[in-house]
């Protein structure tokens, strides 16, 4: 991918995987959508004009140099899709993670504060993408994905993309209660009661994802440390409300399938 086309528009993860593993994260820049979706919105479900989303998705494929992407209808659950050219041709499938050993098949998740998690094995024969919001992470989407992969966790490398950081993520009792008591100390900071209101916590969602990866035996984990609320290059649902979604995309480069 020419560096000039990436500048200011796309992020390429820096993580220790073979060059055949390709990945990128989009930002708000470089597309055709109008406010409040300006400009590289890749989600149909947020109220943007479908024709603009289609153009943005085509542009993403052109930039990546692939013909096909497996998009998902994400529902904060723990469904994992084994993606292939056939499943991708059939349109979005309800799941929060996908994996493939097929080459030149893009796997994407759409996010705006949830953390996109990328996985690849050290042989560069397998890639996966996971949509990690707090609900899906608590529900076990990370472990469900690792269970589905035909690879041992010790041979995987993980990369956490831009998502809400601990400083920006205030949660209430319903989130706190959903988290395993064992994990609360590592991922929650008690802020006490808001003035005249309910008790609040700050939640470190990336730390919860890392804890789940480690628990499953993944040792090589790289975090982008980018926050979608702090960094206005990204869409943020918590900051902006009605807004677009950016994508994390991963694929195996190469000829054949
Ligand atoms: Zn932040």
Descriptive account of the structure:
The chain is of the alpha/beta class and 257 residues long. It has one domain (3-163, 223-252): CNF1/YfiH-like putative cysteine hydrolases (4-Layer Sandwich), CATH 3.60.140.10. The chain contains 9 helices and 16 strands. It has helices spanning 3-6, 50-64, 85-89, 134-139, 141-148, 173-178, 181-187, 205-215, 237-240, and strands spanning 10-11, 21-26, 68-70, 72-73, 80-82, 93-94, 97-100, 105-111, 115-121, 127-132, 156-160, 170-171, 188-193, 199-203, 220-223, 246-252. The strands form 4 sheets. The chain has a 6-stranded mixed sheet with strand order 5-7-10-9-11-15. A 5-stranded mixed sheet has the order 1-2-16-8-3. The chain has a 3-stranded antiparallel sheet with strand order 12-14-13. The structure holds zinc ion.
Strand fraction equals: 25-35%
Work out the radius of gyration: 18 Å
Distance between the termini: 21 Å
Described by the principal axes of the CA atoms, the overall outline is globular
Note the total helix count.
Answer: 9
Main beta sheet, described? 6 strands, mixed
Instruction: Give the integer mean of the pLDDT values.
Output: 93
CATH class, please?
Alpha Beta
Number of domains: 1
What is the element string, with H for helices and E for strands? HEEHEEEHEEEEEHHEEHHEEHEHE
Order of strands across the main sheet = 5-7-10-9-11-15
Fill in the CATH topology.
CNF1/YfiH-like putative cysteine hydrolases
Number of strands: 16
Helix content: 25-40%
């Amino acid at each position: 991918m020419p560096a000039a086309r990436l500048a200011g528009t796309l992020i390429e993860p820096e993580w220790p995987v073979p060059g055949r593993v390709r990945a990128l994260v989009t930002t708000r820049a470089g597309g055709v959508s109008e406010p409040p979706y300006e400009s590289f919105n890749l989600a149909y479900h947020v109220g943007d004009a479908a024709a603009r989303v289609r153009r943005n998705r085509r542009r993403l494929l052109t930039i990546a140099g692939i013909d096909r992407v497996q998009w998902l209808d994400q529902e904060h659950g723990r469904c994992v899709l084994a993606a292939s050219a056939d499943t991708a041709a059939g349109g979005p499938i309800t799941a929060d993670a996908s994996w493939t050993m097929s080459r030149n098949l893009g796997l994407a998740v759409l996010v705006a504060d949830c953390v996109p998690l990328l996985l690849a094995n050290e042989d560069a024969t397998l890639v996966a993408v996971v949509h990690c919001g707090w609900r899906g992470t608590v529900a076990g989407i990370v472990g469900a994905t690792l269970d589905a992969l035909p690879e041992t966790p010790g041979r995987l490398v993980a990369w956490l993309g831009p998502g809400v950081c601990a400083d920006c993520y205030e949660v209430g009792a319903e989130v706190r209660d959903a988290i395993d008591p064992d994990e609360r100390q590592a991922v929650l900071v008690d802020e006490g009661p808001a003035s005249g209101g309910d008790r609040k916590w700050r939640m470190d969602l990336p730390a919860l994802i890392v804890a789940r990866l480690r628990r499953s035996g993944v040792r090589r984990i790289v975090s982008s440390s980018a926050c979608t609320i702090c960094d206005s290059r990204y869409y943020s649902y918590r900051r902006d409300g009605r807004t677009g979604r950016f994508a994390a995309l991963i694929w195996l480069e190469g000829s054949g399938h």
